Amino acid sequence: MPQRSPAQSVPALRPLPRNNRTESYLESLQILERLHRLMLDLVKDEFERLGRSDLTPVQAMLIYNLGTAEVTAGELRSRGMYQGSNVSYNLKKLVELGYVHHERCDMDRRSVRVRLTQQGQEVRDCVAELFCRHAEGLELSGVLDDPPVEAVNLQWRRVERFWAEQIRYIY
Question: DSSP states of 78-123 as a string?
């Protein structure tokens, strides 16, 4: 079989048909990704300001989302408390650092339940205070009014539901 040049081995991609709605949706996806990264940067900056360098922003968000719940590692993902792929690693680190307590379930010894320690609650409170300050600033500036943030959240929940249905359909 003759060798192909790199240009021949990859079929040319034809442009997808796009309309204004598609373009707006794609822009929303880019904004959403940037917002997530900026949120992590804000958490990182807050912890640097407080002189706390032991946690990554992802770990701080895991602590924040865990809150007062006591769940298994699997439930962290299924309940939307953690979106990453390395939940076991981050939980292990948080246990080692003293932010999360873990214990085996009585009913199923393979399963581990996790909850925040007092030190973890303090981190959660730090992140909550940061987000409250941001919400107050956004409220005062009027950013949350047009369109109302509640309507924006409703729209994002609809997108979330659509995506979840797409994933269920695949499997």
Answer: HTTS--SS-HHHHHHHHHHTTSEEEEE-SS-TT-EEEEE-HHHHHH
Residue-level pLDDT, tens digit, the chain, 171 residues: 555 555 556 666 777 777 889 999 999 999 999 999 999 999 999 999 999 999 999 999 999 999 998 888 778 887 777 877 788 888 899 999 999 998 876 776 667 889 999 999 999 999 999 999 999 999 999 999 999 999 999 999 999 999 989 888 776
Torsion of CA 30, 61, 143, 151, to 10 degrees: 80
Read off the pTM: 0.81
